[in-house]
């Protein structure tokens, strides 16, 4: 017992001795003290950092800082606007006929559209061993030399590094990688419909791969890609079949980031894949940051790319940006921070605590994990007084995201296009109170959707004109949900008065299909209560994610929750969610989960797709939305709001719904941060004293009792 | 001795094959390779040939147990290539494409960094408490200590974690609430998990050791020593403790190998990148290549523990013969 | 009109109760076992922990009598019923007797979180006042102490109700205790600690009265995210806790007994096979086995979706399967013990003699072996009970626990992960789950100690306090 006290004493003596400037509970390495480091966290470990493969926001938040596609979105301007990133100007577009003659104006249907992209000169890659060359200008690291090297455990063990200029070939090489079936590029199917020669290239590559050993490098430079033409080192052309106005948005996606052949060759050196050294884990780019540590089990570190060309902070934004201090760095060279450290955090409690303690600079709530909300305060959307006292600021923005409760249109009960099914869906849509859901389960961080198109995207209409007339009325300058009586009336007309079958008297039983992860008791009870208002009995069929996906794919679900996050800010990206060709059961594409098919809608969509934004396009979109309001394939939907909290030392933070390359814009005052961390994290010492006293109290009477006992005589 | 160990290891092989069969059957009944491909390819724009490609790349494009089309019908199967290779500790790639062996090598250290101090400090604390209780047997202290033990035993470990994080890290700012850094700075992240691990184990540990010590205390040599008038403390530390420690330590040997596996709960609550959280993540992500590897590793370590226990018995008690 | 619903777990738990009753009845013929049980109840701790466990069990049993209510006939259905003479339609919500008893608690639903004994909601709400200004205020709870004139009276009101509850509780408890006391006095002296029993019962009754009385006017443990009373949830979770504790062992019991005894009795290849089986199973990390099997159950339910028409049926099937798997992971330990004990017992002279006389195996096992190993089964049963109750919480945390639509302490703790990360944090659901779970596990542990003490012949008879 006594030496236990000694152990405790020495432990705390050790802690006290080790107590320097940094607070005790500082979770960051003391080596980083005083550096301009941004601390953040990630919940899902990124799985693919290969720009051809990656397609999730968990991944693009890292690689968007490293890879530079030709275009980017303007950081401040709204509605979202594209600007050149590595190009000198926006891509030039002209049309050609079948013989390759340039068409002067866009009349009728051109056979080809051709984009010409001109690169800025002097853009250089981050230092990387793939670029290291020997005297003969050959790559330093080759198979024969690798064997002579000491054991390589990580990328840092390659001591020779080099760099080189960005060339048009690098973009072309990546586009060939997109065509390579072994890359599993999610966009290959879509792009090969448009880019000339992509399908042929895919076939050639798979042919060539058949003769190759499994992990060997296939030099894609040897293949011809008819749709992509190199003009010179700084210029290339992309040729598309027909017209595809949305293509330009894909050029701002990391799918079109440059990959030099040297990098591809380097990562295919024998023995590297077994050590997790490959393009999936170690990106190489021209962007403002480079990845210096990728340990998806613990942390990911980005550091400033020493070869970055330097890009000025934008000097214009939308109204109000100057007042919000978003233009105070205008014209200064980005990036502003030296390093960004992302720590793996799975639990909500530590993230939130560390943010309040000042160890995380920002606390973002990912819009796709809305269910596990870290709610700021009990007061919904307000910052509490405590937060304000800490100088915390709040960024809000409506995300280009739509979550919805869908009906499976193939289902015999809720699906179908006859009057009965339609009225049943309308009745449910009115009774299902999305506003209440947002209030209770998302702390108000969302808004009820009137259609698939979220605010901030062309085609969205606010005010009386934009509301879903099947569910809402416009009263007192705001949308009011239709009364329950109307829903009951509709249900009766559908043949289910009071939720009972008109003929048999049996209750109407519906099934909600959901995954186990997203459901908890409170949410389930709430959903059931919404249907009970109509007398409809709801069964919850919750199952694991695989089973759920299978049900969705085979069209066995009845009512389900689903969501869509915008790829690009065009109404096409949302309205195509209900196009018949994309129906889940036929296409397996995961797009039209409701299996909604309406020929009229599809025809309108085809017209709308090719149009320029304008009143004509707006009119067609309105017609399409009217069809949806009539058929009601989605019972209810909402657009999530993004709420990002910033500690007072963070500046230039403005949420962007689509772009992910935002790290270069952010700025922090790390000296202020250090001061704040000091006073927010004063250790409270009395519990230690109490524990030691408590142990003493436990030991002392025992000691005395023992003494008494020792003196007791036998037989006493 | 050596012959015994070799024979025991030989017995382990059918057990490990059995483990492999069970896990293999469990996981492939649950998820076909197609479903696994869909999960790993994500929600958007998944085409049928991407699924075929994924299966081919991961080696899931062959039959489960018997490949009639191949020249080598048993070899070219998922079971042979994915499960039996485990027997030679070739863990292969996870379903998301990382080398599992490399990950296990990296993640084993944080697990050990939590588990070993927890075990050692836990042993010291539990033995001290048990001795304390034995010293005061049949007194108010024993009653109080035993009630405390039952109370501590009756609290779910989840509450210890939640409470510990709340008070030590959030309210009193004494330690970081979660996280881990490699190298020397790891110690400040280990304090709280270790303390919680020790406290959560006090109840059962103390009770167990107390029984063992009491059993020892009822033996004749202790009574003789007492009758000779040897002081109580001397009896306790010179006679009882050395002999009482034998069952304690042989009991501990069995858990030593499984320390590698880490603690599921502690690691995931504290964000420690060990093998426990690795397993949990794999379950939640349904990455069965990792789960299979971890099941196999767990079984190997368990069997190792059993063998070590047997050996430790012969070492402390020469009367026990290994047969 | 109601339609009784028999869930599989209900049937099993009532079978178990019957089995226990039968066991107690046939105990009359076994003086030795009777003496041992007497020793369990002769200790004050054994007596009062038994009474506490029984209270929990009683609630669990009340919650295991399920029914569906008939849907009300409406004018429109009336017509349909007349024309088609359709059978009565029932709600798909499966209720239990306990729900009916606690119907007061289910009706007092608020909109969202509120703290214990709070008068106002935890979250602000937008209100439009007379001037058309939107203000955010904490709304008054709808079902709480509407009789109060002002907020300051709350403390007085709570105290008054508490005193009232104390009196009513005593009023119920004292006659009961008194009656029993008179009845017992007529039977002569007893060694059982009846005073402790009376005290425990009085405390239980008084606290129950207090909860019932105060929950009429307040939410004693606050409300959850959608405004459901947390007390109600905690009480509903009792069934899950009790069932998982008992059924897990029970479902694996036949397997453990048959395999364990036959391995020890027949020896030879049977012994080898059984040993191989349990070493293999126990070498698989339990949590991974459970996770895999839970997924398997999901597959089964999906492929047999037609058999599970009600949410409750689905949840119940999943729950039972979870119990079975939990039992399977702990089964190996019991099997090993039984095998060792059987080995020992079958060496005894009278068993050998029975062999020599050519008594059949079945008879030897039934008459000589089984009675000699029952104490091991019994001890395993009581020891595992609390371990399973605790395990449920951890499993729900990992995401392989009971169905989300079932009330359980594990699910409540799981929900607390996001509740505790709010600021200010929401502590009452987790506290309530903690209290209810702690009392049960503590009582179970104490009772298990007493049982082990009385039944385990190998245990040291240490000096009793």
User: Quick one: how many beta strands of chain C?
Assistant: 5
Instruction: Kindly give the count of domains of chain B.
Output: 2
CATH architecture of the largest domain in chain B: Orthogonal Bundle
Which strand-content bin applies to the residues of chain C? 5-15%
Distance between the terminal alpha carbons of chain C, to the nearest Å?
A: 56 Å
Strands of the widest sheet of chain C, in order across it, are 1-2-3
Class by alpha and beta content of chain C: mainly alpha
Q: Profile the largest sheet of chain C.
A: 3 strands, antiparallel
Unreliable parts of chain B: none
- Helicity range of the residues of chain B? over 70%
Helix content of chain C: 55-70%
How many runs of DSSP E, i.e. beta strands of chain B? 0
Report the top-level CATH class of the domain at 238-455 in chain C.
Mainly Alpha
Largest interface: A-B, 67 and 67 residues
What is the terminal-to-terminal distance of chain B? 9 Å
> What's the gyration radius of chain B in Å?
25 Å
Radius of gyration of chain C: 27 Å
Overall shape of chain C: it is: globular
Q: Care to give the gist of this entry?
A:
The complex is a heterotrimer of chains A (about 725), B (about 325) and C (about 475). With about 325 residues, chain B is mainly alpha-helical. Chain B has helices spanning about 1-30, 35-40, 50-60, 80-85, 100-135, 140-155, 155-170, 185-215, 220-225, 230-255, 265-270, 275-285, 290-315.
Describe the structure.
- The complex is a heterotrimer of chains A (716), B (323) and C (465).
- By secondary structure, chain A is α+β, with helices and mostly antiparallel strands.
- Chain A has 3 domains: 2-18 and 683-715; 42-278, Alpha-Beta Complex (Dipeptide-binding Protein, domain 1), CATH 3.90.76; 401-642, Dipeptide-binding Protein, domain 3 (Roll), CATH 3.10.105.10.
- Chain A is 29% helix and 18% strand.
- In chain A, the strands form 7 sheets. In chain A, strands 14, 15, 16, 17, 20, 21, 22 and 23 form an 8-stranded mixed sheet that branches. A 5-stranded antiparallel sheet of chain A has the order 5-4-6-8-7, covered by helices on one side.
- In chain A, a hairpin with an 8-residue loop joins strand 2 and strand 3.
- In chain A, helix 1 packs antiparallel against helix 21 (686-711), helix 11 packs antiparallel against helix 13 and helix 18 (599-609) runs antiparallel to helix 19.
- Chain A is globular.
- Chain B has 323 residues and is mainly α.
- In chain B, helix 5 crosses helix 8 (187-217), helix 7 packs across helix 8 and helix 11 crosses helix 12 (275-285).
- The longest helix of chain B has 36 residues, at 100-135.
- The model of chain B has no long low-confidence stretch (mean pLDDT 83).
- Chain C is 68% helix and 5% strand.
- In chain C, helix 3 packs parallel to helix 8 (194-215) and helix 9 (230-266) packs parallel to helix 12 (311-346).
- The chains are: A alpha+beta (716), B mainly alpha (323), C mainly alpha (465).
- Chains in contact: A-B, A-C, B-C.
- The interface between A and C is large, with 58 and 52 residues.
